[in-house]
Amino acid sequence: MPVVLTVSTVNVNGMRAAAKKGFVEWLATSEADVVLCQEVRAEESQLPEEVVAPDGWHARHASCEVKGRNGVSVYSRADPEEVRVGFGEAEFENSGRYLEVHLPGLVVASLYLPSGDVGTPRQEEKERFMAAFLPYLAELRAKAEAAGAEVLVGGDWNIAHAEVDLKNWRTNRKNSGFLPEEREWLGRVYAEAGYVDVQRKLDPEGPGPYTWWSYRGKAFDNDAGWRIDLQVATPGLADRAVSATVERAATYAERWSDHAPLTVTYQD
């Protein structure tokens, strides 16, 4: 691993639209070594060349078999040694929700965990995903540790872990994304699988900083958001984190997604 490593993760909320509104310019000026994108919602053939294969980047994309949904990407300065789509669960292999690349000393993955909706099949899908993904995370950490490598899973986890992770927590206690069982599951990612919420390690108190704001009403202007975009890392890498920044747009009009990039710098 490099002495200094910078990683950004962002849900682009549709790459074709984001590319027209500012993503391409943001990527071109990014000093990150790795950029993780979620909710691309397009196949490679539908994306402009500056998104599919931008200068200076090795790009990997995993689209969803259902057109117009999901989709994750990984951009890295170094050429990956290995690429994996999915995490071994048949239902989600071609769902465009998980893409993993292996770099020297580092396994880094882009995750788009299902958003869910209480009382619907979408919530049941989210629960199945979580049930299958937790043991994979534990297995991934064990394998990486045996190989002397670290793991970083960045992306849209679609769960606010604690009250400080969303502005209006009282009115969302029965909504997907802040359900007790979802929060308990994310706690198990940390306590049982042994991962660390990097941004929260650097800023234990909160509130926020939030990474997603609804397009409805004045959510962005009032900073009524959710902290659901995370970089979750093995302890060795988390201990190297020196800064975490949410690249929040200066104004509503300058947003190219309803999410903002979370950028973390790791340093020996």
TrEMBL record:
GO terms for biological process: DNA repair. The keyword Hydrolase applies. Mg(2+) binds at residues 11, 39, 156, 158, 258-259. Its EC number is 3.1.11.2. The record marks 158 as: Transition state stabilizer. Keywords: Hydrolase, Magnesium, Manganese, Metal-binding. Residues 9-259 form the Endonuclease/exonuclease/phosphatase domain. PROSITE patterns: AP_NUCLEASE_F1_4 (PS51435). One of its GO terms (molecular function) is metal ion binding. The record marks 259 as: Interaction with DNA substrate. It is an enzyme of class 3 (hydrolase). The record marks 229 as: Important for catalytic activity. Its cofactor is Mg(2+); Mn(2+). Probably binds two magnesium or manganese ions per subunit. Belongs to the DNA repair enzymes AP/ExoA family. This is Exodeoxyribonuclease III. It comes from Amycolatopsis acidicola. The lineage of its organism: Bacteria, Bacillati, Actinomycetota, Actinomycetes, Pseudonocardiales. The gene is xth.
